[in-house]
């Protein structure tokens, strides 16, 4: 059992053993806390199959990112790495709904996992809503959502919510020490700061070796960067061609570094607050924007340098 899942399992199993189980469940929490793993294991319990034997089970349907286009679909068919779309499309929902016109194959229950449901296209979300409004008997929906507020309110209102909490820094550090014993203290600290309580994200960030990136950010926040040298160092550490996951990790790390700097004794905390707001904006744009890595690194560095001007304390 993953960290922090005890309450979710208790609620799920209580409902599973009850007379009238809700037909739609919203699994809400930060990216990387294990919601997808829970959804699959819960679906296995629902249809009565061991997870080890559940791959391609006919009564467990998962909707997630599909190949971006026909070219990428051919790569998948050939067993090659392929690029995925940025959203779950209406054709996928329509295909799922076509299956709902038949009874479950091996039993009397069927599970539909949508991961992540907050990345459904608008038309796909509207189509899904119709299935949630009139669910076939024996069909249960598990909607994984990193940002539930992005879902249609009408979808949220038809779901029972299971919340997945974040994990404490101490627990995260023990987990990283156990699973990534080769990671040094700085790398673990940076991964924990960037992950925001998400074990899966922390493990991913350890693999990205963010320790030196975090140290460079702290240096800019501590001293500013009047000669732009620290910003150049930061850009080099981020890399010339970072993928989307590395960019996301860097932005999360920068947000965490700035948030930790907020201090009620500051003479003027507005530069720190403004910097954090800008980093939140960039993070929100990251999934859909094609950032130039060098320009993004300089923008992050400039925001951190501005926040450094708020270091003077009101009490002198």
Average pLDDT score: 88
> How many structural units, i.e. domains?
2
Number of helical segments? 14
**CATH class assignment of the largest domain:** Alpha Beta
Gyration radius, rounded: 22 Å
Look at the structure and name the CATH superfamily of the largest domain.
Answer: P-loop containing nucleotide triphosphate hydrolases
Span of the ends, CA to CA: 50 Å
Q: State the secondary-structure class.
A: alpha/beta
Beta-strand content: 5-15%
Helix content estimate: 40-55%
The parts where pLDDT drops under 50 for at least 5 residues are 312-316
With strands numbered from the N-terminus, the spatial order across the biggest sheet is 2-3-4-1-5
CATH architecture of the largest domain: 3-Layer(aba) Sandwich
Number of strands: 5
Major sheet characteristics: 5 strands, parallel
In N-to-C order, the SSE pattern is HEHEHHEHEHEHHHHHHHH
3D shape? elongated
Kindly identify the CATH topology of the largest domain: Rossmann fold
Enzyme class: transferase
Keywords: Nucleotidyltransferase, Transferase
GO molecular function: DNA-directed DNA polymerase activity
Pfam family, one: DNA_pol3_delta2
Structure description:
This protein is of the alpha/beta class and 316 residues long. It is built from 14 helices and five strands. The chain has helices at 6-16, 35-47, 70-77, 90-99, 122-133, 153-156, 169-179, 185-195, 199-207, 211-223, 229-238, 244-259, 270-285, 293-308, and strands spanning 24-28, 60-63, 110-114, 139-145, 160-163. It is elongated and about 70 Å long. The relative contact order is 0.11. Pfam families: DNA_pol3_delta2. Its EC number is 2.7.7.7. It comes from Qipengyuania citrea. Keywords: Nucleotidyltransferase, Transferase.
């Amino acid at each position: 059992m993953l960290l922090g899942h005890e309450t979710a399992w208790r609620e799920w199993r209580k409902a599973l053993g009850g007379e009238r189980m809700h037909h739609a469940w919203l699994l809400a929490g930060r990216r990387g806390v294990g919601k997808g793993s829970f959804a699959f294991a819960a679906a296995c319990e629902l249809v009565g199959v061991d997870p080890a034997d559940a791959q391609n089970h006919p009564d467990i349907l998962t909707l997630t990112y599909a190949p971006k286009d026909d070219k990428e679909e051919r790569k998948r068919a050939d067993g090659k790495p392929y690029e995925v779309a940025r959203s779950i499309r209406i054709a996928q929902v329509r295909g799922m709904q076509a299956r709902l016109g038949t009874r479950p194959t091996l039993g009397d229950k069927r599970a539909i996992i949508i991961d992540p449901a907050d990345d459904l296209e608008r038309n796909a979300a509207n189509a899904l809503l119709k299935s949630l409004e009139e669910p076939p008997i024996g069909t249960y929906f598990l909607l994984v959502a990193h940002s539930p507020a992005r879902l249609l309110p009408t979808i949220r209102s038809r779901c029972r919510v299971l919340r997945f909490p974040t994990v404490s820094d101490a627990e995260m550090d023990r987990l990283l020490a156990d699973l990534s014993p080769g990671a040094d203290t700085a790398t673990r600290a940076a991964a924990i700061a960037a992950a925001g309580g998400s074990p899966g994200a922390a493990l991913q960030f350890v693999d990205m070796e963010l320790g030196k990136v975090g140290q460079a950010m702290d240096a800019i926040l501590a001293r500013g960067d009047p000669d732009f040298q620290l910003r150049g160092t930061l850009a080099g550490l981020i890399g010339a061609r970072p993928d989307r996951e590395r960019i996301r990790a860097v932005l999360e790390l920068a947000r965490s570094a700035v948030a930790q700097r907020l201090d009620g004794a500051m003479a003027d905390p507005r530069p720190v607050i403004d910097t954090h707001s800008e980093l939140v904006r960039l993070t929100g744009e990251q999934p859909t924007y094609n950032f130039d890595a060098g320009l993004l690194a300089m923008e992050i560095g400039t925001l951190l340098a501005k926040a450094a001007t708020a270091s003077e304390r009101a009490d002198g």
